[in-house]
Design goal:
The chain is built from 6 helices and 19 strands. The chain is an alpha/beta fold. The chain folds into 2 domains: 233 residues, Aminopeptidase, CATH 3.40.630; 70 residues, Beta Barrel (OB fold (Dihydrolipoamide Acetyltransferase, E2P)).
Amino acid sequence: MNLHRLSELPSDLPPGSVARGYVTPELDVPLELPFIVVRGTEPGPKLLVTAGIHGAEYASIAAAVRVAQTEPQTLAGTLTVLPIVNQPAYRARSIYINPVDGKNLNRFFPGDASGSFAEQLAFWLTESAIKRADAYIDLHGGDLNESLTPFTIFIEGDERSRELAEVFGLELLVSSGPGGTTITAGYKNGVPSILAEAGGNGLWPEADVAALSGGITRVMQHLGMLEGQPAPKPTRELTQFAWLRSEHEGLWYPKAGAGEAVQAGQDLGCVRDPFGNSLQPVIAPLAGTVLFVVSSLAINPGDPLYGIGA
């Protein structure tokens, strides 16, 4: 297998061909990002799939690698896969942030060419890949220290993205306001974009990898890139989101698991000091579903504890 080393992603492959290799963005920090571009035998949409925006969300990376094996003879259009975008975080097994500038890459889109590493990488991805796509799927999951139930995020009010989220097939849909995420970059450039989450705790169980890779297959069928029509799946939209954080350094004892239904006022756990004394009782601010819970005993001030959707 010939691996290309390119300064930019290929955009002119002949029909029925595949290009694999490494692209080197023009950043202050040298970086080689693996890519796979599959050009189908028939014309069709251009779908971008990314993973590894957070480097230790492994089910997302495994699913992206699996989808990249799509045979060009079965495809109409072009599939571009970037399976490990945040290479420094991947190598360091770093949660949330990358070790180069200590920033969370998924808070700085659409980026800044003259900013720090995260801002430059976000800018490159927006300009070189997201803007050129007809549809965009960014794969995520629980980080090394998080247990998560699968869900899909889309920008509130963006009906084309909501349609993709429904087609993707995860039961829980989360509508979000524009922020600094990958799908915000898609939204601002008129590209239907969704962020799908499954897996966590540094694991990549088959059920979660299959949920993500299968969702991409369903979207490709919906877009006419693959034969067949995705069977409808029931979905439930969550429009409220509570993000609970620790106020202390200490030990974290959660009482509710990912996917569990909780009630407003419910005792969700406690942050304690090393002597067992309570520092911060954690109470559910609303009734809803636990989307993720931090599973690490060690906790720091500002660390997330729960995400609850309602």
